[in-house]
Design a protein that fits this description.
By secondary structure, this protein is of the alpha+beta class. The protein contains 5 helices and 5 strands. The chain has helices at 2-8, 31-56, 75-81, 86-90, 148-161; strands at residues 69-72, 96-98, 115-118, 125-126, 133-134. The strands form 2 sheets. It has a 3-stranded mixed sheet with strand order 2-1-3. Strand 4 and strand 5 form a beta hairpin. Helix 2 crosses helix 3. The longest helix has 26 residues, at 31-56. It starts with a helix and ends with a helix.
């Protein structure tokens, strides 16, 4: 970073590491969005913890092999997930979200007792573009090893390249 900084602002007497972060303009702050993402990050942390045990026990090799069932009994936290692709956030192929009390066998992080995760394996074949496991891999003609989402992306790219 220092090399880039000195290239852009040549002054050997001042280092980028001595700079302070600029103050954030108050109109950029969104407290409700901060609360939403605090919930989402807490859920992701519990999913990651559960999947780390699965990896350690050699039941999965990658988080993309997983389709965890996530139990959230906090209404605000459950609402925060709505409209967010939690499988992408948690780096899993699939995810099931339930607004229920976590069952006894669920992995629960002591800091987030209202969130529980029951690990499960993803169902389907591995997409050769996203590496996600999905039941619809190969369902688009001409793209036998892609999910419909990835087939559409490749189709769009191919159309632009011509």
């Amino acid at each position: 970073m220092e090399e880039v900084w000195q290239n852009r602002y040549p002054d050997e007497s001042f280092s980028v590491h001595m700079r302070q972060f600029p103050e954030t303009d108050a109109k950029w702050l969104a407290p409700e969005l901060a609360v939403k993402w605090t919930h989402i990050r807490a859920i992701r942390r519990v999913v990651t913890g559960a999947l780390e045990i699965e990896r350690r026990e050699k039941r999965i090799g990658s988080s993309l092999e997983a389709a965890p069932i996530v139990y959230v009994d906090n209404a605000e936290a459950f609402t925060a997930m709505q409209g967010v692709d939690m499988a992408d956030v948690c780096i899993t192929s699939q995810i099931e979200l339930r607004h229920e009390t976590p069952p006894g066998e669920a992995f629960i992080d002591e800091d987030s007792a209202h969130i529980g995760v029951v690990p499960a394996l993803a169902v389907g074949e591995k997409c050769q573009r996203s590496w996600k496991i999905h039941p619809d891999v190969g369902s688009v003609a001409g793209y036998p090893d892609l999910t419909p989402r990835d087939a559409a992306a490749v189709q769009e790219y191919d159309a632009q390249a011509q």
